[in-house]
Amino acid sequence: MIRKTVILLLATAIAAATGALAAETLESGLRGSTPLNDEGAAAPMTPMRNTAEKEVRNYPEQPPVIPHSIDGYQIDLRSNKCLSCHARARTAESQAPMVSITHFMDRDGQFLASISPRRFFCTECHVPQSVATPPVSNDFVDIDTMLNRAAPGGRR
Amino acid sequence: MTGSDPKASRPGFVRRAWGFLLELLDVLIKPSTVLGLGVLVIAGFVAGIIFWGGFNTALEVTNTEKFCTSCHEMRDNVFSELKSTIHFTNRSGVRATCPDCHVPHNWTDKIARKMQASQEVWGKLFGYIDTREKFLDKRLELALHEWARFKANDSLECRNCHSADSMDLTKQSPRAAVAHERYLFTGQKTCIDCHKGIAHHLPDMRGVPGWQ
């Protein structure tokens, strides 16, 4: 008898809980208010940052980001649009930064005459930046700030 | 002329053709004895309208996107590549169709280009680029022709819509503004020098000046 009552109570509780869950709208920074079992409307695409001004690197090894739009740039086996400005021979005319000398090295550290095939596809590392405001903020702290904090008398 | 022996005295083909031409000329230069001058003038005028109108209509039919893409060589290669570019869809809905860039707009140059294009009919008949592989093999050669044409006429087909005088540099991205100011406005370069591959994919660019 008691057992039956317990099962009944449990069932009621579960039903009530799922009902409440289903009725509640979830507000999430990434998903918005779309229910979990639905696919939300796609956010409108934002334009690329197009200032052509160098952006700071967050750590020394970071591949520099592309400060301009690269819509329709063809990078494949036949041609590489990036290199028509950033190649060594093209930089005088374009005033674009030259591809780093490290990109001329093969895997054994030998310098080749032109871009090493393994570094040919620029967008594997270098990417343009969107002007979107991120829904989740980033609390990355760069090394200078970190060292400053650790130094005696530094701000923590 | 034909005497008692028609087989022996029948003149050769050239002679007969020449005789016919002389007779025709005779008819053409003699004043008409049956039709009035007014009738002839009006009939000539109407026939002129029909022939000239028909010619121009036929010419314009061959100057449409629909006509160009009725061949699979165009539809499956260059036209499908155009579809993802700004010259096909954009915010204001202005589309550059095939002839806007590939056929000169003024009449004399258009006719000259159309006569040149008869070679392309030959190419179509004999399957010059009837597979994707053949097209890719020939792609550099075909692209070089177009680039040479644009270079020779100072990118005339670009400038039919894009006028350097109407460019507002403040509305351009900083890179574009600098490049246009330095190279376009000074006349050092023409559109096609920098804007290759904006409407179709590029061929293998090794050896093309300015490319790697």
Low-confidence segments of chain A: none
Strand content of chain B: under 5%
* Name of the CATH first level of chain B: Mainly Alpha
Largest sheet, strands/sense/barrel of chain B = none
Order of helices and strands of chain B: HHHHHHHHHHHH
The shape of chain B is elongated
Structure description:
The complex is a heterodimer of chains A (156) and B (212). Chain A is 24% helix and 0% strand. Chain A is mainly α and 156 residues long. The radius of gyration of chain A is 27 Å and the shape is elongated. In chain A, 8% of the residues are buried. By secondary structure, chain B is mainly alpha-helical. Chain B has a single domain (38-66, 73-194), classed as Multiheme cytochrome fold (Orthogonal Bundle). Chain B is elongated. The mean pLDDT of chain B is 90. Chain A binds chain B through residues 50-53, 68-69, 71-72, 74, 77-81, 83-84, 87, 90, 94-95, 114-115, and chain B through 84-86, 173-175, 178-179, 194, 197-198, 201-205, 210-212.
Describe the structure concisely.
Chain A has 156 residues and is an all-alpha fold. Helix content of chain A is 24%, strand content 0%.
List the helices and strands and how they pair.
The complex is a heterodimer of chains A (156) and B (212).
Chain A: H1 2-23, H2 83-86, H3 91-94, H4 143-150
Chain B: H1 6-9, H2 13-29, H3 37-61, H4 65-68, H5 72-82, H6 98-102, H7 107-116, H8 118-125, H9 132-152, H10 156-159, H11 174-184, H12 191-194
